[in-house]
Design brief:
By secondary structure, chain A is α/β, with parallel strands linked by helices. Chain A has a single domain, classed as TIM Barrel (Alpha-Beta Barrel), CATH 3.20.20.150. Helix content of chain A is 39%, strand content 13%. Chain A has an eight-stranded parallel barrel, surrounded by seven helices. The N and C termini of chain A lie close together (11 Å). Chains A, B: This is Sugar phosphate isomerase/epimerase. Chains A, B: Keywords: Isomerase.
Chain lengths: 285, 285
């Protein structure tokens, strides 16, 4: 297991940690300012949300590379299924393609897929997972052609209804085996999987399908399941054990801190948040 | 699979469906009034919460039996672990024993255990599950002597931090195998398990350990994870498929409707709620 106690060059910032994923939140920093702050603090990478990028993907990607920062990823495709997916289907597919293009423009290695919830009019997860498989099979060659990898992210089962019919790492492994395309893998986020007693076995099974590892913590008394994530060390997830299993599976890439926290961290000065991320990354992650 | 379309004698009411599990909510009906209403509507059973019973367990149990209604269960033991468990340990054990005595007094066949969350100062679920096993092993003989069965209820992983370190049916099966006592089994609640793709296999494994089956629905856009459960048919859980698997595992007992719904069903007249439960039980459950 890697020793981060004196080295946080494997740390990446997901800008959601500064509230930049949602309108009306966030410090309002430009992508360039975020890149400069991360580079100055010695982070290794940054992950943006599409709303921050607009039509400036190439110029922002170039700025990151000039500072030595890796644009590790982009959040995210549209929801593919469920009540929040763009309608009609062609609008969803067009938006999926636009997200691939943006990732390619940024030079981001990975585009995250949050698959979407249960298809209206259906029951259970099976039908929706079938739809996800069909759509990703269709889009994977396009991503591969643009040198972008697609990371299916299993979300916590609490989002099973509206945001993600993909709710466990086991289901993500099953889905990857069905899709069977080298451009398609998995993002592992401790917030979504910390409770899963099958995690170590499924991480081993995932192996080099693991395209990203996301850090935060699960607060024992979570007040809001969307926007009350904890800073590493403040919750009950066994972060060291999870990372050990992730690395034992072969993953040696960046660790991306991604904390949605409307009532706490988003209200603090960004510099304080970033410094706390570094300190907690070195000590408890 | 049993046909309920013309027969709802397998339906039981959990009084939480009328808001009776939480102070400040609920229709305020006495246990006797609830029993009479259920009997009149042709239900087969009722499940109470301890706060409704006080010192009148035997008299309430007798009233139910006079009307032909089965007191199918009692909710519940104290939390055994985590931030919400009574302290010190002896207070928790005393309260556990008091809950067994109350179930015996009512003549309730089953006492539900919601195990409690992650032990303060620990990370992950393992240590807390070890504690749960120790405590249940210690209390099971007492329950058996009072002719009460203990039903471990796996809760949705969203409660993993504070309310239940037991979050899947697989974990409940593993725990039962460790405890290995004939008075200890499992309660299966669709709200907590509907998303689990391993459900059918784990139900089969559970077999005659299944001591109860709880009905409600998971609303696609759940506004509150504690108090926004849906009426059967209004959500995305595949209720027919789950019941088919429960019955294939051997369970032929009562189906207990348990809907926590502060903003919707708890605001409606109890008679309307009960009649809707009957109608939905016959048609979509």
């Amino acid at each position: 297991m890697r020793d981060f106690s004196h080295d946080h060059s494997a740390l990446a910032l997901n800008t959601a940690t500064l509230g930049h994923n949602i309108d009306g939140h966030g410090a309002g920093w430009t992508p360039e300012r975020i890149i400069d702050a991360c580079a100055e603090l010695g982070l290794g990478g940054v992950v943006f949300w599409r709303r921050e990028i607009g039509k400036r993907a190439i110029e922002i990607g170039d700025h990151a590379r000039k500072t030595g920062l890796n644009v590790a990823g982009l959040c995210r495709t549209p929801f593919l299924t469920g009540p929040l997916a763009p309608k009609p289907e062609q609008a969803m597919l067009d938006d999926f393609e636009a997200s691939i293009d943006m990732a390619a423009g940024l030079g981001a290695e990975v585009l995250t897929i949050v698959v979407g919830g249960v298809e209206p009019g259906t029951k259970g997860l099976g039908h929706s997972l079938d739809r996800v498989a069909e759509i990703v099979v269709r889009m994977a060659p396009l991503a591969a052609a643009r040198k972008v990898k697609l990371a299916l992210e299993p979300l916590h089962p609490v989002y099973g209804g509206d945001r993600s019919c993909l709710v466990t790492l086991k289901d993500a492994n099953d889905l990857c085996e069905r899709i069977n395309h080298p451009a398609v893998g998995i993002a592992v986020d401790v917030y979504h999987v910390w409770w899963d007693r099958s995690l170590a076995a499924e991480l081993k099974r995932a192996g080099n399908r693991i395209l990203g590892y996301h850090l935060c913590d699960w607060l024992a008394e979570t007040r809001d399941v969307l926007l009350d994530r904890g800073m590493m060390g403040d919750g009950v997830a066994d972060l060291k054990a999870i990372r050990q299993a992730v690395e034992a599976a072969g993953y040696q890439g960046l660790c991306e801190v991604e904390i949605f926290s409307a009532q706490d961290w988003w209200k603090r000065p960004p510099q304080e948040v970033l410094k706390t991320c570094v300190e907690r990354f070195r000590t408890v992650s």
